[in-house]
Amino acid sequence: MSAPESAAPDSAAPDSTAAAGSGLEEQRLLIRRARKEMLRRRPDRREVGVEPPIRVMARIVQELQDECAARRFDPAATRLEIVNRTLGDVNVRLITECEGDEGGPQDYRTLGDELGIALPGEDLNGYTASGKRYQWLREQMTEAERQLVDSGYDPRVYDLQSIGNPLLRGLLAEDMRQWGLTTTAEHVALGLGATDCLDKVLRGLAYLARRRDEPPGAVLFPAPGFNMPELQAAAYGYRLHMAPTRAEGGFKLTGPLLSRHLEENPDVNVVYLTVTNNPTTFAYTPEELAEIQDVVRRLAQRGRRVHVLADLAYLGTGRPEEDRARMHSLTSATDVADLMIYVSSFSKTHTLTGDRFGWVVFGETEFARAMRMSWMNSVSSLPAEWQLRFMAYHALFRENPRLIERIRDLYRLRRSRLRRQLDRFDKEHHLFERVYLDDDATIYNWSKLRKGEDCFSVLEKTGIAGIPGSAFGYSDDYIRFSVGILPVELD
């Protein structure tokens, strides 16, 4: 995939004076025309560029926005006609959904204030933040530090184990026990978000292999899937083994498929599994998870150890009762507990991407202790202020579980509105073979394009920038859109 060249206004383009003097609807038409002009200048799409597809699309959007600014289009018209749906992060400062939106009388603009992100007096699209929760979090950090010092742990000095303070790790272990997993603080290690945790786990497993005078082995990645761990695994010397899934099976790794890949590839010793999938939005059922563990169990009985690296980044964005059933299935297989690794984060489920709160839970104590060398050799010691803020947010969500429900409700509203918008565009432009429903989870939409369409043509015709399937190890017949950063505007 290759990026288009940046466009310059040609003789047919409107001059800046004409653009500045136009009404909103007229400017929207002019922006659509400029959008097509720029995208027509792209090189042959068959050429493979050196940039990852997600960066290509993000850069194209930025170039389009810069072009509109240069032509002095109204920013309101630009926002409606050039929409970046590439990144998944939720920006609570940009929430506009409020009273009268579908799903009940909710004002989601207040989330930034309720989460303590909004500054005192900050204007959140017409709602003025009180800043009370912002101040509360800072007071809670002071209280957390007192608790740590009183317990004999000083966050301001070097943490020899490098895995974070025992009070917070104990609280996170307690959270995991609600799923039926027998854990203590000894099983938990903190990290700077789920991505950092994944990196440390892969680093640690490679290190343990080298101590046994063995190569790191291979990591099995179901496709389509989140690709950052692939880059991490490659950096630590693993062979990457892709296991393409089928649309008919919900793009999921089945027990038989996993068994076949493992039998044919004896060097695979890690299976990366996103329990609720990015990009497809489909989640594994308890039965499907039990199938996967059955495969790992049978191999363990024959002396072959294959770790399951379970990414739980989106666990909590779906229906609570279904998430509970998934986790009980994952954690109930005590005979393979030493092969299970759980990676969690507040980034997507709690809209706290910038704060980087993540943690790993290992299913077995001795294995957890052996993995600590990876933490010592990377961060050396976790930041004190970061740990205190992590503790403050943990206290916030324990005291205010309704906040998580509101975040889930916002995601559900945006996914529903995006599907409606895509259906409308499909009727107008015939873009999609199928706009997939989701399992009421994540912050994405995963859809299949009609023959002859791709992410460029979708952007040209609708103004919406998505990410092609190749970014997730799959076919460019598919495209992923995020509902995260921006609200879905329905005309």
Automatic annotation (TrEMBL):
Cofactor: pyridoxal 5'-phosphate
Domain (Aminotransferase class I/classII large): residue spans on this chain: 164-484
Family matches, as InterPro entries: Aminotransferase_I/II_large, AspAT/PAT-like, PyrdxlP-dep_Trfase, PyrdxlP-dep_Trfase_major, PyrdxlP-dep_Trfase_small
Keywords, comma-separated and alphabetical: Aminotransferase, Pyridoxal phosphate, Transferase
Protein name: Pyridoxal phosphate-dependent aminotransferase
Recorded superkingdom: Bacteria
Similarity comment: family membership: Belongs to the class-I pyridoxal-phosphate-dependent aminotransferase family.
Molecular-function annotations in GO: transaminase activity
Region (Disordered): 1-27
Upper classification of the organism: Bacteria, Bacillati, Actinomycetota, Actinomycetes, Kitasatosporales
Biological source species: Streptomyces polyrhachis
Composition-biased stretches (Low complexity): 1-23
